[in-house]
């Protein structure tokens, strides 16, 4: 079985987003009051009292710029939580291989071509074994040779959670 890797937002991009986000807004840090916000810098949930920020992020635009393609109308930007200052990044130990996955939550696995165009997707109602379900969805996606990467998104808000690239 192929092992897939959930990719956080890279440190260089995080540095830019902590200054001005992809919507052109200045970063406005705040102290997390309740905890539980999905942090895309370290792929874990926030804890009460941490300094975090909600910024606008355009994951496909950034990926496309890095590989020299134009995603056109498929370019989207949306809200993501990040630590307000640099953090250590993913450290593991969250219970499973894939962040923000627990039984009973809905996730969308959206597929993109090497040209940055949507090739389809799959809605997942995560079972008692969420890692196995996500592995199967990634294997299914990458069985199509046209798929270059996938985005995992939260259904309830449509937010980008993380990216998985072709192994």
Any overview of this molecule?
The protein is α+β, with helices and mostly antiparallel strands and 167 residues long. It contains three helices and nine strands, in the order H-E-E-E-E-H-E-E-E-H-E-E. Strands 7-6-8-9 form a four-stranded antiparallel beta sheet, covered by helices on one side. A three-stranded antiparallel beta sheet has the order 1-4-5, with no helix packed on it. The chain has a two-stranded antiparallel ribbon with strand order 2-3. The chain starts with 10 loop residues before the first helix and ends with a strand. The mean pLDDT is 94.
How many helical stretches?
3
Extended strand count: 9
Radius of gyration: 15 Å
- What class do helices, strands and sheet pairing give? alpha+beta
Major sheet details? 4 strands, antiparallel
Shape: globular
Low-confidence stretches: none
Mean pLDDT: 94
Q: In angstroms, what separates the terminal alpha carbons? A: 11 Å
Helix content: 10-25%
Strand order of the largest sheet: 7-6-8-9
Report the portion of residues in β strands.
Answer: 25-35%
Please trace the helix and strand order, writing H or E for each element: HEEEEHEEEHEE
List keywords for this structure.
single chain, 167 residues, alpha+beta, four-stranded antiparallel β-sheet, three-stranded antiparallel β-sheet, 3 helices, 17% helix, globular
Question: What is shown here, in short?
Answer:
By secondary structure, the protein is α+β, with helices and mostly antiparallel strands. It has three helices and nine strands.
């Amino acid at each position: 079985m192929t092992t897939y890797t959930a990719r956080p937002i890279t440190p260089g991009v995080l540095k830019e987003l902590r200054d001005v986000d992809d919507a052109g807004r200045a970063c406005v840090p705040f102290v997390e009051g309740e905890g539980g916000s999905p942090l895309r810098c370290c792929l874990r949930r926030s804890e009460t009292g941490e300094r975090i920020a909600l910024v606008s992020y355009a994951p496909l635009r950034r990926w496309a710029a890095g590989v020299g393609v134009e995603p056109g109308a498929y370019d989207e930007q949306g809200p993501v939580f990040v630590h307000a200052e640099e953090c250590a990044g993913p450290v593991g130990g969250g219970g499973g291989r894939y962040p923000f996955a627990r039984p009973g939550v809905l996730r969308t696995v959206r597929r993109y071509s090497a040209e940055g165009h949507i090739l389809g997707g799959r809605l997942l109602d995560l079972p008692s074994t969420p890692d196995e379900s996500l592995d199967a969805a990634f294997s299914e996606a990458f069985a199509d040779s046209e798929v270059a990467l996938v985005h995992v998104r939260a259904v309830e808000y449509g937010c980008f959670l993380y990216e998985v690239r072709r192994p």
